[in-house]
Structure formats: structure tokens, C-alpha cells
Amino acid sequence: MDKEYSRRVFFKRCFQQVVGGSALLAGSMFLGGCQSGEDSSPDQADPLDVDSCDDLSKVSEAELKKRKGFGYVEETPIPDKKCENCNLYIPPKEGQACGGCILFEGPVFEEGYCTYWAPQET
Question: Residue 39 — very low, low, confident or very high, per pLDDT cuts 50/70/90?
Fold first, then answer.
């Protein structure tokens, strides 16, 4: 009977640890999700807030590599496939000269193209 009792106690304690750890993890994820999502630091520049779509001065080196990896070009080689009619394109906001892309940061030409072009859903 000692073995059964100690086994029961062992599993009960394990269960309590798992439940407690899960609650802690869920709580931290919840609190992390409560952030506004906007960084109020003044040196956090919007990479789409540029005068020209070829101004990449606000784009990090890592994002420039990512753009290159996706095969982004400023002018499409395929007339029917351009950023403007791609499902991944982010149209420019009011007052912005350029749109963006959900795959990488930085300004995107409407006439641009990358190898991940996806037709817009109609």
C-alpha cells in the first residue's frame, strides 16, 4: 500500500506542477499580448515613411537581405504580376508615397515584383 500511496502522491504533485506551469505560461502570454503593439520610442522610424520608394535608409540590413532573398525587384518582368495586384501587398496609407509587403519591411513599388507573388482573391 505504501507504493500505491507514494505513486498517487507523486502523480498528484506532477499534475499540480504541470497545471501551475501552464497557468504561469498562459498568464505571461496574455500579459505580453496586452501591449499596445506600438513602440513609442522616437528613434523607431516607419520604413514606409519615405519620400521615394527607392529610399531604403530606414530599412535594417537584415530586412534588406530578406528583400533580396524573396527576389524583390522594383519593376516586374511579368506584366500581369506586380506588387499592386499581389495579395501580400500593403497599399500606401494616406500621406505615404509607397506601399509595403507583409513578407519584409520597407517601401515597395506598385510596379515591383518578387518570387512570392500571390494573386489577389476576388
Answer: very low
- Amino acid of residue 87: N
Fold of 46-122: High-Potential Iron-Sulfur Protein; Chain A (4.10.490)
Phi, psi of 101, deg, nearest 5? -140, 145
CA 57/CA 72 separation, integer angstroms: 17
Cβ atoms 113, 121 nearer than 8 A: no
Residue 101: strand pairing partners: 89
* pTM given for the model: 0.61
In this structure, are residues 73 and 114 in contact, taking their beta carbons and an 8 Å threshold?
Answer: yes
> In the block, which residue shows the cell 501552464?
22
